Amino acid sequence: MLVASTSFLLASASAAGQQGAINGEWRFYGGDPGSTRYAPLDQIDGDNVNSLEVAWRWTAANFGPAPEYNYRTTPLMVGGVLYATAGYRRTVVAIDAGTGETLWTYRMDEGDRSAPRRNSGRGVAYWEAPDTGPRIFVVTPGFHLVALDAASGRPVADFGDHGVIDLRTGLGRDLDLVRAPIGSSSPPIVVDGVVVVGSALPSGGAPRSRAMPPGHVRGFDAVTGELRWIFHTIPQPGDFGNETWEDGSWAYTGNAAVWTALSADPALGYVYLPVEAGTGDYYGGHRPGDNLFSQSLVALNAATGERVWHYQTVHHGIWDYDPPAAPILVDLVVDGRRIEAVALITKQTFTFVLDRRTGEPVWPIEERPVEQTTVPGERTAPTQPFPTRPPPYDRQGVDPADLIDFTPELRAQAEEILAQLHYGPLYTPPTVPVEGGTQGTLMVPGSLGGANWPGGAVDPESGYLYVQSATAPSVIALVSEPEVSDMDYIRGGGLRLRGGGGPQGLPLFKPPWGRVTAIDLNAGAIAWQVPNGEAPEYVKNHPALEGIDVGRTGRPDRGGVLVTRTLLFAGEGGGMFAAAGSGGNKLRAHDKATGEVVAEFELPANQTGLPMTYMHEGRQFIVVAVGARGHAGELVALALPE
């Protein structure tokens, strides 16, 4: 029997918001309220990690239809039980942490109710208090909040309406309760007895209308389900920021939701909201102004819902550069000064590092002029915020020198593609295709990032922030299609980037196409950066590259990272260019200080959820969701041999 390390017991509960998962458990989606994705466990280390083996596998194949490549859950582990979601109907499952045995399941029958985010969901929330039994909270595909007894999986009778709250009510606008296009795929977060719930709407590239449901955030009493507060992410008359929605656009504009995960500091009593853009993603002519609190980080008093501070990362967003991941809490020492900080990873590859008490930038953030729009009816912000530290962790903007150049022929073909597009530095605005001219704007990063919902992880001991990113360009062309939308312009037409986006289906730009980056947050500098994996098979085997060694290019994947006391784990995933075969099924252990790959494992399929870790009966486990086309989603548990 392996001897369990007791080092995890050293984490202080009072500092749990930024010190990682405690007591060998994983009680929050991000490990702790501060979404550090860190666990101070060291049974698995650099000397034995190569001995990891599959301890058990749990399949989601029997829990309703689901795209196998989109099984996004990250389990929680409390008291020897894993809690996760599975299938399109988002069944909640309890699983034995040591064996993978199913203990109970729950699924709500929502009938014909629409589900704009119909997927497995990213997981659940856990909460317990002395006067009530432990509870699991889940947001269903049809946008109900359900409270379950953690021991039995049955709805809690005295919460809401027999355990259920209809989240399509109480948003301040009349919504069709069956067909309203609003839901969520991220779990809520519970802070000091308040369940904080965000929302998500359909992709905003071509919304059917400028009038959509608003993404206001709400807090519910964790015991009774009573509404405690609502925070208007689109400020109403009398609210701070209402004047930034000009021409009365606050009254009909929707979105500005929190579709990704939330974070909290229980000691301060704050919850941190990464808010997306208002309707739509690429045209804002119907919502003139800077549009607070869209594409902002907002700190609320979790007990009252009152705004404490905010920082807007994009003014009047028209690039789909939503904050995609949970803010990460970490305590830093910068130039001898101790700072309780929050780090916000972005699609545009910036990291905004702010004092989490006040919202003040840790390093200067400069407002710099950006190119202005030529689209009729649009009015772009004259400047955008640029952090001076840390530097970007992936490519920003389009430089012709960065085009693929494995052969002169490929380089010439890449130049031909570029000549058909409008391009420039970061924040070059979308354009309308011109007959005989440019066919849209080439965006780098594209609308998928950079980074995306897998986010990052932080080591509270070193202050290193670890981020997985991809170089995935997008072409944004705006068209007017009144039969599709009542908006003046939506995304459509333009030049289509096929396969990898470049010549003959290869990537348009030079590698690396996927990276793992360590950012020293105490110094505001990049500590190291390595390609995330070998070249995709479709690149290695491409006839245009016969006889050419392309080297370690990295893969443009969404794998997600996990950091422990001893190692960094980073996986491959479905791939930004999945249709071209860019995804991979490797999970790697890296040296945290250097990025060197210590070990590599082949998972049964591509990593689709975020890895987590825990101790159970003296044994450390690492669990990750996997799936692929033709391979049912499943949870895979790795551990050292008994």
Question: Secondary-structure map with pairings?
Answer:
Blueprint: H1 16-19, E1 38-39, E2 53-59, E3 76-78, E4 81-86, E5 91-96, E6 102-106, E7 125-129, E8 132-139, E9 144-149, E10 164-166, E11 189-191, E12 194-197, E13 217-221, E14 227-231, E15 263-265, E16 270-274, E17 296-301, E18 307-312, E19 328-334, E20 337-345, E21 351-355, E22 365-369, E23 383-387, H2 408-419, E24 441-443, E25 456-459, E26 464-470, E27 474-476, E28 478-479, E29 490-491, E30 514-520, E31 525-531, H3 537-540, E32 561-564, E33 568-571, E34 586-590, E35 597-602, E36 606-607, E37 612-616, E38 619-628, E39 631-639
Mean pLDDT: 94
* Unreliable stretches covering 5 or more consecutive residues: 1-14
Report the structural category: mainly beta
Helix content: under 10%
The largest pleated sheet is described as: 5 strands, mixed
End-to-end Cα distance: 6 Å
Shape: globular
Strand order of the largest sheet: 1-32-33-34-35
Total number of strands: 39
Radius of gyration: 23 Å
